[in-house]
């Protein structure tokens, strides 16, 4: 160890530049140097911060005890491999911190058998919920979209009226063509109406309410129409308190999520959708506008056994016009995100590859009677 550190300290980028040891100290990523016996030989400042431990406590400790992988099944002898390893989105208990999700990189040190450099990249909650914390740019885009929608809808009514006049003046000879024009105008108008649903920045009126009749209403609409060939299973927590909601908005959110799930199950042999509720302690988010933090204990999940969201759109799943469906418009989930945020909650997506299930999770504030 002494020889390695001495050789590292002698290396310079330039004659008067920082040594490699000094560069490691300044790295913005938590970095550890590990010996062949799995004890930690060195740690930089960022590692001290991430692990919530002093360097003196880190150095000499066992790497497997200092960074504990949360999933027992994931212990594929990761700490004894002599090959480069990159593990993404794994849950660990790091040092004295609570469980967190990280990207973990292990790189063997050339010409020093058993020695490794380990880096930990912590993932923030903002990434998990889709980078939806900042609304400044979104408001500008919403305003531009609202103006555009208004300007497009104005001539549509004129086009439809002209098509109807043509149909009546030609004794129905061109009825098929004029009906096609009317149908396409109606389709574009409906699309713009859906766009306008999430271009408004008005505040929703929310109050304490029972979510179960609203979920049942949405499930009934789904079972009678777009999900009539899908088994819908409901598991409710009977002790759940009221949530602070807008009733119409929550019904629309549930219809959109159920429709999204039903469409994903189109080619599944035994399609099923599961709707569950639960009370989750200790979940909170920071609100904008100096409102402090909001506790979000009311959980609603919509689970389907479809193939899941394509990997290439995961990071933009809740953005408008992002869809993995050939005929999709990419507005359903964008509206879900908008309405849930308007109710001071948030929505998340997760995929359980082992169970073959996709989950959309809604977290809402609890309703407090005045």
UniProtKB/TrEMBL annotation:
Q: Where is the Histidine kinase domain?
A: 147-368
- What EC class is this? transferase
Q: Which reaction does it catalyse?
A: ATP + protein L-histidine = ADP + protein N-phospho-L-histidine
Give the Enzyme Commission number. Answer: 2.7.13.3
Q: Does the keyword Phosphoprotein apply?
A: yes
Xref: Pfam families:
HATPase_c, HisKA
Q: Which UniProt keywords apply?
A: ATP-binding, Kinase, Nucleotide-binding, Phosphoprotein, Transferase, Two-component regulatory system
Report the PANTHER family cross-referenced here: PEROXIDE STRESS-ACTIVATED HISTIDINE KINASE MAK3, SENSOR HISTIDINE KINASE
Record protein name field: histidine kinase
Tell me the organism.
Answer: Sphingobium olei
């Amino acid at each position: 160890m002494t020889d390695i550190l001495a050789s590292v300290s002698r290396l310079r980028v330039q004659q008067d530049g920082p040594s490699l040891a000094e560069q490691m100290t300044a790295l913005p990523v938590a970095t550890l140097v590990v010996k062949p016996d799995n004890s930690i030989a060195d740690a930089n400042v960022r590692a001290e911060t991430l692990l919530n431990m002093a360097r003196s406590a880190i150095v000499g400790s066992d790497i497997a005890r200092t960074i504990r992988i949360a999933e027992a099944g994931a212990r594929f002898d990761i700490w004894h491999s002599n090959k480069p390893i990159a593990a993404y989105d794994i849950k660990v208990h790091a040092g004295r911190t609570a469980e967190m999700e990280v990207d973990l990189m292990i790189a063997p040190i050339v010409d020093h058998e058993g020695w490794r450099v380990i880096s930990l990249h912590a993932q923030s909650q903002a990434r998990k919920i889709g980078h939806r914390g900042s609304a400044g740019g979104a408001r500008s885009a919403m305003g531009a979209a609202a103006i555009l929608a208004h300007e497009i809808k104005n001539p549509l009514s004129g086009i439809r009226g002209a098509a109807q006049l043509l149909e009546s003046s030609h004794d129905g000879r061109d009825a098929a063509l004029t009906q096609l024009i009317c149908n396409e105008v109606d389709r574009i108008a409906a699309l713009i109406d859906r766009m306008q649903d999430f271009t408004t920045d008005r505040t929703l009126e929310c109050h304490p309410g029972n979510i179960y009749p609203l979920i049942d209403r949405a499930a009934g609409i789904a079972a009678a129409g777009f999900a009539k060939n899908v088994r819908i299973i409901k598991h409710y927590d009977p002790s759940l308190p009221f949530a602070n909601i807008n009733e119409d908005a929550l019904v629309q959110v549930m219809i959109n999520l159920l429709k999204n799930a039903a469409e994903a199950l189109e080619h599944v042999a035994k399609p099923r959708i599961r709707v569950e509720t639960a009370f989750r302690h200790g979940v909170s988010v920071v609100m904008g506008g100096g409102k402090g933090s909001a506790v979000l204990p009311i959980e609603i999940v919509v689970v389907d056994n479809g193939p899941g969201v394509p990997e290439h759109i995961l990071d933009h799943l809740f953005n408008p016009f992002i869809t993995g469906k050939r005929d999709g418009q990419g507005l359903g989930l964008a509206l879900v995100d908008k309405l849930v945020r308007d109710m001071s909650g948030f929505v998340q997506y997760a995929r359980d590859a082992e169970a073959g299930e996709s989950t959309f999770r809604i977290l809402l504030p609890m309703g407090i009677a005045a």
